[in-house]
Write a structure and sequence with these properties.
By secondary structure, the chain is α/β, with parallel strands linked by helices. Helices cover about 40% and strands about 20% of the residues. It has a single domain, classed as P-loop containing nucleotide triphosphate hydrolases (Rossmann fold, 3-Layer(aba) Sandwich). Strands 3-2-4-1-5-6-7 form a seven-stranded parallel beta sheet, sandwiched between helices. Helix 1 packs across helix 10, helix 3 runs antiparallel to helix 4 and helix 4 packs across helix 5. The N and C termini lie close together (about 10 Å).
Length: about 250
């Protein structure tokens, strides 16, 4: 079974940057093959990894099943979803990526979602590690669409109270929905060590690591360069490497 890593938090806190650099650490430490799952409707994980996506999104596959004549007569719904799902995965040498896409829209998607869940859980068995970039609500994890278990959940927050409340809500959601999570880590982005004393009771968990501001990251964002290609000596890359070494340096 693949080792599953989920990353969640309020929009704009740096989840995709964290995922891209975490995936690089996994690759450099020979934890491959890796499946990157972009489960945030604002999909940009492929760009952060420097990968040009070739297929459509999973939400588009589901929508197609609801259209008149959307499924060829020669194929069952199950066969169609399986075929389209395989074609929606963009493959590279060590890292493949699939995008979940935006909201599904009106109508009942219970049956296609159940079929999709079955095929996605077959798909992840081909990988050593799955890294999921989630929106704050962790919809796909809570519904078990992509995986029924999470080995490591990284909750990201900046130092704003709104972001910290969102991080707490993610943590509470995993408890309320009884999502099987083995380990949970809180990461503070754009922060400094002195901020932790000020944040105090706003923290839902002890802080595992702090990712500082980085002018080089801002430059890469502005120029459209892949975050994956940030120099290892950059402040952000160094912080993510340190977090990975302390939390993921174990057999899997």
């Amino acid at each position: 079974m693949a080792y599953t890593i989920a990353v969640a938090g309020k929009g704009g806190v740096g989840k995709t940057t964290f995922c891209a650099l975490l995936i690089r650490w996994l690759k450099e430490n020979k934890r491959t093959p890796i499946l990157a799952v972009d489960a945030d409707p604002n999909s940009n994980l492929a760009e952060a990894l420097g990968i040009v996506p070739e297929g459509g999104t999973v939400s588009e596959i589901i929508s197609k099943t609801k259209e008149p004549e959307g499924i060829p007569e020669s194929m069952s719904q199950d066969e169609f979803i399986s075929y389209k799902l395989n074609s929606s995965v963009t493959e590279t040498e060590h890292v493949d990526i699939i995008s979940m896409g935006g909201p599904e829209g009106p109508g009942c998607y219970c049956f296609p979602n159940n079929v999709l869940k079955k095929h996605l859980q077959k798909l992840i068995k081909n990988y050593r590690v799955v890294v999921m970039d989630n929106e704050a609500g962790m919809e796909h994890v809570s519904r078990g669409t992509t995986t029924e278990n999470v080995d490591a959940l990284f909750i990201l927050s900046d130092t704003s109270r709104r972001s910290l409340r969102s991080a707490r809500r993610v943590y509470e959601l995993t408890k309320e929905l009884k999502v099987p999570v083995k380990e949970t880590f809180l990461i503070v982005t754009r922060g400094r060590k002195g901020d932790l004393d000020r944040l105090g009771d706003e923290l839902c968990l002890p802080v595992t690591g702090i990712i500082p501001e980085d002018a080089l990251l801002t430059e890469y964002d502005l120029t459209g360069q892949a975050i994956y290609d940030l120099p290892g000596g950059s402040a952000v890359a160094g912080a993510v490497n340190d977090i990975a070494e302390r939390t993921l340096d174990k057999p899997f």
